[in-house]
Amino acid sequence: MQEGGGGGVARINFYQASCHQPSRTRQPLTTGDDNNPKLNPPRDDWCYGGSWIEDGPESVSITVSNVKILQWALKQLAHRLTTSGQLPPIEFQIQIQKCSDDLGAFASKLTKFEALETDSRARKLWKRLKAALGDKDLERMTETVGAYSSSLNLYMTALSGPNTQHVESLRTDLARADVQRQQQLSSISTSLDHASATNESMRSRLDQGLAQSEANQQETNNKLSLVWDAIQSLAARTELSATLKPLGARPIEEETPGSSSLPYASPTTYSQTMLPLERQIPAIMLQNEKILDCINRLCCMVNQCEDTSNEETVDSVIEDLQTIIRAVTSQSKNRVSVKELRRVSGLLDSAQTLSINGQAQRSPWPNQVARHEQRLETYEIGNVTLKVHTKRRYLQHHPADGGLIPKRQRSDIGYTTSRLTFLPKVRDGMMFSAIIKQQTSPMGFFSPIPFFQANHIRPRDSLVFQLVEEGRLPELITLLREGKA
Predict the structure, then answer these.
(1) 412: three-class secondary structure by DSSP
(2) pLDDT tens for residues 200-229?
(3) Domain range for residue 90?
(4) Which one of 79, 163, 253, 310 is separated from 262 by 20 to 30 angstroms, measured CA to CA?
(5) Rounded CA gap, 152 and 378, in Å?
(6) How would you class 155 by CB atoms within 10 Å of its CB: exposed for 0-12, middle for 13-18, buried for 19 or more?
(7) 162 and 292 share one domain
(8) Which of 155, 176, 197 is the last residue of a domain?
(9) In this structure, is residue 214 part of a structural domain?
């Protein structure tokens, strides 16, 4: 009974010792990293209440798991310290080394209890090993592991605090830098837009300035061209006036129309028209230059040629005169003047007899002027004045024996004379005269061969004029015989 009772008391005492322990809820160890499943494996709450034999294997398993988790945390901490190059204080190094040694001892001691199963045989074995291990030892191991875990967690928190603050500071600086970057990008974009608009405005202004400059340049070139043409014209006229000096030539006999006492004779009619030209127009200036060249050639040819000329000279003189007449016709606005000029041009084309510095032909018949008409047109061509003097005379024919022709058989002889006189305005310039004559025969038709005569007119102060004015006829006859007048 006593043994049985003693045994029963012992069992009761053990049961009471096992069941009257303060009930506590134990959580798994944490190392500050709640998201790591290795450091925080899910565990169910367990209680020391009840049978120690039944709950012992689970307590050992939890303690072994906590020891392994803490060992893994120590390895990670050592690796991070080695990688970062930051060594902890000496006291903490000693504590870490002691924690590592204790965890190694706990692990070697608990490993053999971790493999026990919770069957009846395991319970019996657990009872036998209970004396060697004891619940106080297991609780001390658990408290030691918890203390080490708290110390490591505190150190890691203290260690990661500056890094966290540094990272937060870096993040704040990066956010501030990003804001500044966005502001700078916005400012740069605005500046680029403004610069683009400014460039477009400057390009537009440059294009306008270039167009205006080209227009001004073109206008300047046109003005320079006009000035150059004027200079060339002035040079040509200066050269012409310096080259064409008065040479010995025969003056033209002015034909004074006779007076008629016939009752049907008409009075002399006279008209004069001045037609100035616009020298500023380039086309007219070029045309005037061409006319001056023609006059220059005509004057030189008349000065150098004798009374008889070859066919080439005749063609050249007629061509130059036609050029002058066409130019004057194109510039004339008077219909009557244009008609007279065209008549002169037609007579000039049909003329086949040319006399240069020769004697004027006389009418072989003694006639009386029955009617006389004349017309004078004056044109300004550059530095030369052109006078076109057209005369028409109708003569009453008389037989050679002095008798009178019956009225029904009488016919008048008509003369048409067109004189082109070129008078230069420059001093010592040459005067040139071209006369074209055509007459109608007594039978009433026109002669098919008009007479053309070209003469060089001496100025008033020439020797011929002086001899005539002074009445020195023998000397004048001598000049005429020598061909100098």
Answers:
(1) strand
(2) 888 888 888 888 888 888 888 888 888 787
(3) 2-176
(4) 253
(5) 131
(6) middle
(7) no
(8) 176
(9) no
